[in-house]
């Protein structure tokens, strides 16, 4: 057990997942990355939007999607509607436009909730690590002093990653509330 790197990896993963999650949250400006996970049915194959269309941001609160083939407009619209973006696409037969509404406090609450969930994940990793340490100590594989040192180390890692999450929450909330 004297190696707690696997637990640190899990904590690091939680922070990375949160940051990735935050890229899909609409900030005050239109960000084409919110479309990264959207797939369009392209001749029977789910294909990422970036591979079938040109995506641009002509205005601060608008994303414009211009498909390489006009026949894809309906499929693009459908893919956006069934996604969890909460945006209604508009099309003029040539391009699809996504207009972003002004942001609300609701979004800031969502950011905080996602951050809190990531903190819970990190605390769960801490619990697992501490359980493993206690088990090894009980089995006589490590001494009481070693167990105490490892638990202290796990707590320091927990504090470090929880602080990173707090920082990520703060940054995303600030980004959302300033347009």
Question: How would you describe this protein?
Answer:
- With 179 residues, the protein is of the alpha+beta class.
- Helices cover 56% and strands 16% of the residues.
- Strand 5 (89-91) and strand 6 form a beta hairpin.
- Helix 1 (5-23) packs antiparallel against helix 4 and helix 1 (5-23) packs parallel to helix 5.
- The mean pLDDT is 87.
Summarize the structure.
The chain has 179 residues and is an alpha+beta fold.
Task: Sum up the structure in keywords.
single chain; alpha+beta; two-stranded antiparallel ribbon; 56% helix
List the helices and strands and how they pair.
Layout: H1 5-23, E1 39-42, E2 45-48, H2 49-52, E3 53-59, E4 62-67, H3 73-82, E5 89-91, E6 96-99, H4 105-138, H5 144-177
Antiparallel strand pairs: 1-2, 3-4, 4-6, 5-6
Helix pairs in contact: 1-4, 1-5, 4-5
Tally of alpha and pi helices: 5
What distance separates the N and C termini? Answer: 48 Å
Mean pLDDT: 87
Low-confidence runs: none
Q: How many strands, what sense, and barrel or not for the largest sheet? A: 4 strands, antiparallel
Shape: elongated
């Amino acid at each position: 057990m004297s190696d707690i790197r696997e637990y640190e990896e899990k904590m690091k993963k939680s922070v990375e997942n949160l940051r990735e999650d935050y890229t899909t949250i609409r900030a005050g400006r239109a960000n084409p990355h919110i479309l990264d996970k959207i797939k369009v049915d392209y001749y029977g194959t789910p294909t990422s939007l970036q591979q079938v269309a040109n995506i641009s941001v002509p205005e601060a609160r608008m994303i414009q999607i211009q498909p390489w083939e006009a026949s894809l407009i309906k499929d693009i619209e459908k893919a956006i509607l069934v996604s969890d973006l909460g945006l209604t696409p508009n099309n003029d037969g040539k391009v699809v436009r996504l207009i972003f509404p002004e942001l609300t406090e609701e979004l800031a609450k969502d950011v905080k909730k996602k951050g809190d969930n990531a903190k819970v994940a990190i605390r769960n990793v801490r619990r697992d690590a501490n359980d493993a340490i206690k088990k090894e100590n009980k089995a006589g594989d490590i001494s009481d002093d070693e167990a105490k040192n490892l638990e202290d180390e796990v707590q320091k890692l927990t504090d470090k990653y929880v602080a990173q999450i707090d920082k990520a929450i703060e940054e995303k909330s600030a980004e959302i509330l300033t347009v």
